[in-house]
Predict the 3D structure of the following.
Amino acid sequence: MEQENQSEMVQATLPKFLKVLCILTFIAVGLGLVGGLYNLVKAPYALEEYETMMEVSGGAFEGEGFMGSMMEMAHANALNALPLALTAVGANLFCLFGALMMWKLRKVGFYAYVCGQVLGIAIPSILMGVSGWMMIGAIFPIAFIIMYAVNLKHMS
C-alpha cells in the first residue's frame, strides 16, 4: 500500500530530448528578446538611419539584382520597425511561456509555443511581403514545432 502511494507521488520525468529542446528554446528566446528590445529602442530612428545609409552609399545599392532586393527589404524593415520589434518581443514571450510549460510537461505550452512561432513568421510576412529569406528563416521554427510535437505524448 505504501509503495503505491510513493509511486503515485513520483512525477513524470522530463525526457532528455524535450529537455534539450527547451534549453535551446530558452537560449533562442533570450537572444530574441534582447534583439527585439534593442530594435524597439532603435525603431524611431530606423527610417532616418536607412536614409543616411542611402546617402552615404550614393545610391550604389539601388537597382536590380541581389543588392537591390536587399535594399528594398531594408527599406520595408525601416518603415515597419516598430510593429516588427513589438512582434519579436511578443512572439518570444509566447515561446518562453510555451517552453516553460513544456518543461513542466504541460501540453498547453506546445500550443503557446506554436502560436508564438506562427506570429513571429506571419506578421513580418504580412507587413513586408513573403520573400525567400523569410522562407529560409521559417525552417528552424518549423523544425522545432515538429520536434516538440513528437514529444506531446510525454505531456498532459
Notes: The radius of gyration is 21 Å. The longest helix spans residues 16-42.
